[in-house]
Amino acid sequence: MVSIFPSRSTAALGRRSEPEERRELGPSRRQVETVQRQLKEKWGKLTDDDLQQIAGKRDQLAGKLQERYGIAKEAAEKQIDEFSHTLDTANVKTMSRGQGGSKQ
Hints:
This protein has helices at residues 8-13, 18-25, 29-42, 48-54, 58-69, 73-100. With 104 residues, it is mainly alpha-helical.
């Protein structure tokens, strides 16, 4: 059985266990909740169940947008591209403020 807690040997050496390192690579719960809130603001017809089913998968989001809004796949993908661009822009601004300590 694999434990999520570091073994004594890795803890004693100051290293993190593999599951702990993997956990840090993904988005934080706060980031996920923020994106889910933004998705619901942009596409109000998406339900909490939809968001759980989508679980960060672009193709699932496109399918749900097609289903809820009756739009073509290409239109859904274009909207997702535009939404992704706004997220990328917001993340860059947040990161630059956090790293430099000053607002841009």
